[in-house]
Structure formats: C-alpha cells, structure tokens
Write a structure and sequence with these properties.
globular; 36% helix; binds adenosine-5'-triphosphate; 6-stranded mixed beta sheet; single chain; alpha/beta
Amino acid sequence: LVMPLGQLIGSYTQLQTGLGALARVQEVLALEPEHDEVPERPVAGRSPVVLRTPTGADPVPLLQLDGVGFGYPDGTAVLHDVSFAVPAGSRVALVGPSGAGKSTVLALVEGFYPLSAGAVRWAGTDVRELPRAALRARMGYVEQEAPVLAGTVRENLLLAAPDAGEEQLWQALSDVGLTGVVQRSARGLDVAVGDDGVLLSGGERQRLAIARSLLARPALLLLDEPTASLDARNEGLLRDTLAAAAADRALLVVAHRLSTVIDSDQIVVLDAGRVVAVGTHADLVDTSPLYRELATAQLLV
Ligand code: ATP
C-alpha cells in the first residue's frame, strides 16, 4: 500500500507543478503585443532613427532615467520619480531593501512595461522613439535566475553569438572564471549543462549566462545578482566577473550583496521606490543612514 500511495503523492505534486506552469503560459499568451515598436527602416515622411552609442568621453550619458514613475498593472505604484544616469563605460549599482523596486528598474530599462511617468533615455533620446530591437541588441540582460538552457556549454554560448570561434568561446568562459570547470570534462565545450553534465550551482549558471551576454558585445550589461546566498568563492568569482565585464562596457547591477558592488563608480540607493541617495561607497557610508545600515548589516563598515 505504501508504494502506490507514495506514487500517488508524487503524481499529485507533478500535477500541481504542471498546473502552475500552464497558468504562467496562459499569462504570457494573454499579454498584449508591444505596441510602441518603432520601425528600424525609415518610413516615408519620417526621418530615419539613428541609434547612437556614446563612448566614455561623451558628455551625454549612455543611459538615463528621468523622473521615472511606474506601477504594475495589477497593483499600486512601485517607482516614484526615479532619476539617475549610467555614463558610457561606467559601473552603476542599485541597492536597497527587498521590494524597493530594484529589479523593476531593470525591467523598465529593458522596455518590458510602459512607464507611467518620466522617460528612459539612450544617449539622450527617449527610448520610445528608438527601434526597440536595435536597442535591445546593445543591451545584455542577465536575470536573477540565470536562464541556462538544457544542452551543451557551446550551445548555450552560441545562442548569443552564432559566429563566435573556439577562441572567443574560451575567452568568454575565462572572463567569467568557468574555464576550469569546463576543462575538467573530457568533452570540453560539448559537455552538457544540467543534471547529467556540469555547471549545476546557481553561481556557475549565472556566470555562464553572463559569458553568453558578453559574447554579444553589448554596450550596457544589466545584471540582477542572485538573491540566493552564494558561497564565498562564488561571490569572489562574481566580483571578478563584473570587473572583467566592466572593462569595455557600462554595467548596471542590482546588488543584494554590497561586497560585489563596493567599487562601483556610483551606487544608487532605492527605498520604497524612491532614490534616497547616490554616491560612491565611501560617500554613502558618511551620508546615507540607510546605506550605512545595509553596509553595517553586511559587516562592511
Ligand atoms: P528584491 O531585493 O527582493 O529582489 P527588489 O528591490 O528587486 O526586491 P522588485 O522585485 O522590483 O523589488 O519589486 C518591487 C515591488 O513590485 C514589490 O512590492 C513587488 O512585490 C512588486 N512586483 C514585482 N514584480 C511584480 C510583478 N510582476 N507584478 C506585480 N507586482 C510586482
């Protein structure tokens, strides 16, 4: 009796998981198509849209949020009058308590939702006036739950850059500190990722997703650091990865661990959807009580 009962309970759990997945698929199917797509080709009577990517010397920031307000369709306002800039080549971190709106800022930069107030600007131009596909091609976005696909390491990397050569793939792995893990397998780049392969830890998966993003050479990398605890080694590796990624692009990183972003050019402190302070770690420890509290809780002061 025990065995069939166990199987029945297992099937019930599977059914619940399946129903959850089905609900999410239905949510996606119900979404309205993006309506503010701007054509990349010039339209008669309209001047062609030029997507400029400033360099470090340019006075216009690569990305700017200007008085951004937003609420999810089903709820109350989440962001209020959020303004900050990410100059080309710089490293900016978003920190703040859980629920402050950090991940939402990244979703808005990616253009997943329409704003209720303000603007997101790329090189000074409101992104609503720019071709979305071209804009997204200049941004890499690595979510908290790194979306690593079933398949091999090579397949995962080639998704972003189908023409990348062997050397580029190994370089990308080296930038994120994964060379050793992949080299340990006799199959090298053709080792499977997942249950029967390598790269199982959350930290490793996220670094593989970062490597994939970097291969597409984005001008701006958006990264949502995993909330789940990383061990000290993975935390150190993530810090090194960010330093390598920042070498020739701008970075906007949502950080739960201040230690990974302590050396950012600017740290934006969000609290209940508002920017309450902006500065370097040293500035903020002196000027922002909330930042000092976060830093003290993480034993950084
Ligand atoms: P954490 O540090 O816990 O990841 P966060 O600062 O990144 O938090 P967000 O995830 O941006 O915060 O969430 C801000 C607010 O928006 C929260 O109150 C959250 O419940 C709500 N929220 C987030 N995503 C959605 C969504 N898809 N639909 C409705 N509300 C949402």
